Amino acid sequence: MRQFGLSLVLIFAAGWASAFEAEEVARFGPENSDRELRIISTADIAFFEPMITSFLASAPNTSIEYTVVSSSELQKAIVDEGEAFDVAVSSAMDLQTKLANDGWAQRFTPAANSALPDWAVWNDMLFAFTQEPAAIVVSKSGLGDLPVPDSRNDLINLLRQHPDLFRGRVGTYDVRQSGLGYLFATQDTRASEIYWRLTEVMGALDAQLYCCSSDMIDAVKSGELLIAYNVLGSYAINRADRDEFAIILPSDFTTVMLRTALIPSNAPSSELAALFLDHLMARSHGQDAQLLTNPALDLSQNEAALNRIRIGPGLLVFLDQLKKRAFLSEWESAILQN
Amino acid sequence: MRFLLIEDNEQLAEAVVDRLMLDGHVVDHAPDIQTGHDFTATTTYDLILLDIMLPDGDGRTFLAQHRKQEESTPVIVLTARSEVADRVGLLDLGADDYMVKPIDFSELEARCRAVMRRRGGAAQNLLTLGNLRFDSLSGTLKLPDQDIQLRTRELRLFEVLANAPGQVFSKSTLVDRLFSYDEDVTENAIEVYIGRLRRHLDASTVKITTIRGLGYKLEVA
Amino acid sequence: MSTPVAHGSIRRRLLLSLLASAAVLAIVVYFVVQSVARQVAQESQDNVLTASALSILDSARLSGGEISIDLPYSALSMLDSISDERVFYAIRLEDEFLSGYADLPEPTGDPNGTSSFLSTTFLGEDVRVVLVKRRMSTDTGRSFLKVSVAQTLSGQKQALARISRTSMGIGAGFFLVSVLLAALISRSTIRPLDRLTGSVSRRGPKDLRPVAAPVPSEMVPLVASLNSFMRRLQQSLMRSEDFIAEAAHRVRTPLAVVRTKAEVAQRKSDDPETRKALREMIRAIDDSSRTAGQLLDHAMVTFRLDHLAREEISLHRLVQDTVERMRPTSELKDVTLEATEVETATIKGDPILVQNALHNLLDNAVKYSPSGAEIHVALTTTDDGAKISVKDTGPGFQTDELDVLPKRFARGANTQDIVGSGLGLTIAKEVVEAHGGTLHITNNPGGGACVSLVFPSS
After folding, report:
1. Cα C421 vs. chain centroid, distance in angstroms?
2. pLDDT single digits (tens) A254-309
């Protein structure tokens, strides 16, 4: 596992050597359309489809090519290969920020700019259209009579009081492997020292490390894990089997990831991209928003504890090689105690 | 009448004195203001003839002082300057009248009479001849039963004759005294006035006698 | 009188120059404020950049001869805290690139200073770069750890735009206040001039007193020249008057001597020839004296007409006075002079001139009327004005002379050799016309002449 993580870091540092790999490509709209919008995205087709269809409904004679990639492949496609996409959508806020900061994004002023919250726009380049919290997923059956933890402190206490129960049965992201995991982890450290305590407690209980939220949820469902920490809440709530586990937004603070879109500087149809972004932002903010995320995960009731990750150069700090090396080394020493 | 002439031009003064004396007036001459004051301080005059441009000052100064001393002697100013320019202030300062040089002495006499008349006649202006009294200022002959108003020339003629009763006046002398020089009159014109005057005097004891070849004289019966 | 040619206006010139200097000052204020603010904005940006770079430098640790840098989150986030900025950094050990943006240009400023700055372009945008460095001892010896931090200028540009608007506002406000002040200043500067003009133009025609009211020192030379001019004018006027008076005196005194002596001689002479000769002499003297007198009077009248006074004149009193003064002369000639029908009337003008005009009419009437004639003077008023008419029972004018008569020196044909000149009518005509009136000469239906002066009502 450690070998794997290290090699990923190396790859990240060395850049991408080969052509980017698309996981999936889908086309929407009429065959012989006058204009085509190329979207490169880290979001599943199913997640993003409502936005695409609603846009096409308002834009006649338009088709959309939707390419699903991983966040690192997205970087590769745009930075290394100069692939001509009109919109780049990603949940990797840090990488999106770096794209914009390094000049790969066009400036653009959305039609509803003044109505948008400050946190949703950065430098007229990066536009946030979802708020997706990092949640604690707990197996309802596995916990038995034990109280469901409401905060990190509760969780630490619970783990400490029942080390035998939880040994090998708590999981979290392998931050060396997952960009999102790394983002959540670094932002947790910014918010509170408690992250390190929790990581150490989890490390002492031989925490399991995962690449993705889906694997963690599967593991909770199967009983392999009792508790998974920093699971992407929006993902969990969208699962059909969501009744089988509890999704907890920690009351001390809930780190919120913002999914962002930008128009690459080499976008061939930047005007169409602008129309799409106007549509995207209009549907994602304000009173009449029709969110892509499941409304069952109501963030507003916990507004004070929301810790939205701020888009901006601060995110570049954790991309810094020296910083990342230092962070990962500290993280490893906390989580890999055996 | 007794005149005071204040005039610095010796020649003119001398001529004026001569001329006034011809009509039987008494004239003192002062060549400057100071002397003029000296004269008025000691003598009472019937009239003062005052020149304006004097060696020791302006005639107006004399006038002002004269009036301040409440002297009642009338003053006729003799000016050699423009009628227009000099009029200013002369009458205001108390001059009774003014004349522009050269002076027509008949006019002077007329103005003197006018001044006297304005001032209100004094008693000595009444002359009594027989049953006739004569007010020279108003020009009235007072007979016992009537008053006769004489016209100017009749009055002048009567005055000339009455001032020297018994004296014979030639026609030419009378023409000189009665008519101004710009009038062309023959000596016969005198006869007309003599005739008129005789008719006025019919009721009195005063008679005008013709002395053939010599002239006329006034007699009191 | 000719209107002076106006060339420019002091008030306008003053106003324009004040406004021009205000405009220049406003522009200067605009640029000064902007440049100071730009400098301040630049300095504050530089300070933030320096703080950011120093916080990175401070996080550098030597562990086991290796340099580790724990990049503080705030080092980069602080640069983005007020406005969204793109931020770049580079960490180098001497020339060895450690982290960040390898291509970021490095300021080459003062090597001894704590920080040096550079304005340049990076990744397509204008940036400000700061470089701070610190000497570190590593395995390979002592070397400089150099941290460059760069930031885009969008916040600074916004600030500058705001400052530009503000300084524009300050400049415009300054200018507006200056406009107000300039208007006030120019008005108050001109006010003494206006006052002087007013006080001079309100004066009567004979008021040649020097201007005594205090004036600003700049106007003292003008007022001094004006006063000196008026003094010279007054002297010149007085000299003219004196000259006329002196001329009259010089002419009349000898004439008076001669006339008096001639009269005395005539009275004393019995010889009809001598008497006739002397009488003719006296008449010649009277003629020349009268001519000289009227010439001098005419000169004086002309002189006074040039500076016509405007006093209230009681015409009725003037008529009665003038008639009264003429009465002894008329009586001498056995001519009856009566002021009949005198109404009350007032006009504006020079009473001496009006009296002189009437005197000349009466003088003419007395001179040209035969013994026993009658002269009637009347003053009547109408809505349009006042009319003084002098009617006599003399010979009257010849019809063809009626227009020619008042011309200077014209003399009626049937005046025989009566002493006099046509100047009397000329003077009367000039005087009445100077007062806006007219002179009418007619013959009475029953014989005799009628001359009237018609004055407009005041």
Report:
1. 48
2. 999 999 999 999 999 999 999 999 999 999 998 888 888 888 887 877 788 899 99
CA distances from A131 to A49, A285, A332, B110, C436 (A): 17, 10, 29, 135, 102
What are B188's two structure tokens? Answer: 């016969």
> Residue B74 is part of which domain span?
2-119
SS3 label, residue C3: coil
The CA distance from A168 to A159, in Å, is 11
DSSP B118-179: HH---GGGEEEETTEEEETTTTEEE-SS-EEEPPHHHHHHHHHHHHSTT--B-HHHHHHHHS
B112: amino acid identity, one letter? C
Assess whether chains A and C touch, using the rule of 3 or more C-beta pairs within 8 angstroms: yes
Name which of A98, A49, A108, A56 is nearest A78 in CA terms.
A98
- Alpha-carbon distance of B179 to A172, in angstroms, equals 159
What is the count of structural domains for chain B?
2
Topology of domain C310-458 in CATH is Heat Shock Protein 90 (3.30.565)
B15 CB neighbours in chain C (<8 A) are 256-257, 260-261, 264
What is the rounded CA–CA span in Å between residue A129 and residue A107? 17
**Reported ipTM:** 0.85
Q: What is the signed CA dihedral for A319, A321, A326, A329, rounded to 10 degrees?
A: 90
Find all residues with CB under 8 Å of A102, minimum gap 6, and list them. A79, C86, C101, C123
Q: What is the pLDDT of residues C391-409, one digit of tens each?
A: 988 777 777 667 666 665 5
A294-304 pLDDT, tens digit per residue, is 888 878 777 88
Model confidence pLDDT, tens digit, residues A203-249: 999 999 999 899 999 999 999 999 999 999 988 998 888 888 999 99
Bridge pairing between strands B53-54 and B57-58: antiparallel
Beta carbons of C419 and B182 less than 8 Å apart: yes
Task: Kindly determine whether residue A314 and residue C77, on different chains, have CB atoms separated by under 8 Å.
Answer: yes
Residue C89 CB coordination number (10 Å): 27
Starting at the earlier edge strand, list the strands of the sheet with B126-129.
Answer: B126-129, B132-135, B140-142, B147-149
Amino acid residing at C119 = S
- The SS3 of residue C227 is helix
CA angle A162, A163, A164 (to 5 degrees): 95
Distance CA A323, CA A328 (A): 8
Residues B89 and B18 both lie in one domain? yes
Nearest Cα to A324, choosing from A110, A159, A114, A179? A179
CA atoms within 13 A on the CB side of C331: 23
Would the pTM count as exceeding 0.80?
no
Q: What is the CATH number of the domain that holds B66?
A: 3.40.50.2300
CA distances from B66 to A30, B29, B42, C145 (A): 135, 17, 14, 123
Domain C-terminal end among B119, B139, B173: B119
DSSP A60-107: TTEEEEEEE--HHHHHIIIIIT----SEEEES-HHHHHHHHHTT-B--
Sorting pLDDT into bands at 50, 70 and 90, what band is B124?
Answer: low
Final residue belonging to a domain, choices B119, B147, B177: B119
Q: Chain C: give the shortest CA distance to residue B182, in Å.
A: 6
Window C:117-156, CB contacts with B under 8 Å: none
Mean model confidence pLDDT for chain C? 84
Residue C356: which of B84, B111, B114 has the nearest Cβ? B84
Interface contact B101, partner C, CB < 8 A: yes
pLDDT band at A102 (very low <50, low <70, confident <90, very high): very high
B151 touches C at CB < 8 Å: yes
